[in-house]
Amino acid sequence: MPSFLTPEPGLLIWMLVAFLVVFVLLAKFGFPIITGMVEKRKQFIDESLTSAREANEKLANIKAECQTLLQEAQARQSQILKEATQTSNQIVAESKTKAQEEAARIIEDARRQIQAETERAQRDIRAQVADLSIQIAGKILSREMQKEEEQEKWIDQILEKIEN
Amino acid sequence: MNCLRNNIALIVVALSMVLLPFSARAAEEGDGKIDVQEIVMGHTGDSHEWHITTWGGHHISIPLPVIFIANDGSWHCFSSSRFHEAEGGVYNGFFIPSEGENSGKICETVNGQEAKVKLDISLTKNVLQLWIIVVLILLIFIGCARWYRNKQPDSDAPKGFVGFIEMFVMMVNDDIIKACIGEKHYRRYAPYLLTAFFFIFLSNLIGLVPIFPGGANLTGNLAVTMVLALFTFFAINLFGNREYWLDIFWPKVPVWLKCPVPMMPIIELFGIFTKPFALMVRLFANIFAGHAIVLSLTCVIFITCQLGAAIGAGLSTVSVIMMIFMDCLELLVAFIQAYVFTMLSAVFIGLAHQEEHEELPAAQ
């Protein structure tokens, strides 16, 4: 058998020892550290991706929320504006009617007063006129009736009228 | 493009011309003949010294410590250079025959006959290469792992070399181990399979470097692949679940195939051993063959050079181009064999953890 087909026991022993040394050292201080770190890094990257995705989702949610909030605010704003306009319109209208009423009332009062005053004045005037006319009539009568015939004439006249 | 191609051809020819005279002399035997088999076997095999080059008839090599137990049970430990210094290459009664059955092995004379020593655990070329790879692999991976100290999962991913290693490790971890064993059980086996992958890959690569810190044929050595296969064997069988053993001793086949004569159980039992055996032989044969081919192509240069300058130059050019191609192919094979070993180990481990079969109503 050629020599290269018969394994040397010496080399066999050395190889066994050397490979065991390499294996033990690398299994303890070599490969597990490298693969472990790579796996940890992979895990970290996976986690980062997941959290990034979550953050993105949250951001999108927040954006949507903002949008709805904005829309709500806008709606509210326009509503408030509308209400304010309505209220002011109402107030203006109310005050207008109030003013009108007031004016009408004042005018009415004034009219009534005027009427009352007028009536009073008329009454006064009437009383005075009656007074005056009585006085005048009295004076005229007293002057006219100083003559006899005159008196008689007057009575006749009155009588005539009554007869008629 | 054309210009570039011409340049490359020129460089290849020039290089082969320059390198030829030196190298040819190096590989020549005393009588000027080239023994291709010896060169190839010498370079793919193990040795007690690390041969670097031969310069002017002198071997330049790194002597390595020799440690062994002799046949009388005594321990011996000395430098391999003693063999060269000693008279006739015999030191304290021990010698390394250069040919014959025990060529390259430490022998002694027992009862007048040449005999191998009891146990040779010398720090040979392959063992030294092995420890160089161990140091390198520990430096690379523990160094990279140290980078992660005081790092949080949210710190930046590593860049540069650490980033490359991390990517490489995760490629093996996710695409080979996790994919073949399954999400549920792969964690327990990942350190072993990753160690095996990078050990094989690094050994294959360093084996392709032709000069000192590399060049030994480590993964192309049966002892090395045998240990790796042994680890895989234990990884498969020590933690196999009930289903796995049931499939071996009472597989779901017609009863006559397993009842009076346990045909299928025997075949399955063989399967337990053939799986790691195939892993062992596949890795060994691939890397060994790759080294042998590259070395043979190198030898072509020396052989053709002896035939004449013109033929030598022409064929050497072809040979160098082939060698470059083979080296590129071997780079690919270095990765593919590490990949295949790890993947098949993972597949076998995954088979030992298969889920409960769905009971077929009319199975028998």
Give a structural overview.
The complex is a heterodimer of chains A (164) and B (364). Chain A has helices at residues 9-144, 148-163. Chain A is an all-alpha fold. Chain A has one domain (3-130). Chain B is mainly α. Chain B folds into 2 domains: 65-122, no CATH class; 125-351, no CATH class. Helices cover 61% and strands 10% of the residues of chain B. Chain B has 10 helices and 8 strands. In chain B, the strands form 3 sheets. Chain B has a 3-stranded antiparallel beta sheet. In chain B, strands 5-6-7 form a 3-stranded antiparallel beta sheet, with no helix packed on it. In chain B, β1 (49-55) and β2 (58-63) form a beta hairpin. In chain B, α1 (2-27) packs across α10, α2 packs across α9 and α7 packs antiparallel against α9. The A-B interface holds A 2-16, 18-19, 21-23, 25-27, 29-35, 37-38, 40-41, 43-44 and B 41, 44-46, 68, 103-104, 119-124, 126-127, 130-131, 134, 137-138, 141-142, 144-145, 148, 151, 153-154, 157, 165-166, 169-170, 173, 190-192, 194-195, 199, 221-224, 226-228, 231, 288.
A few lines on this structure:
With 164 residues, chain A is mainly alpha-helical. Chain A is 93% helix and 0% strand.
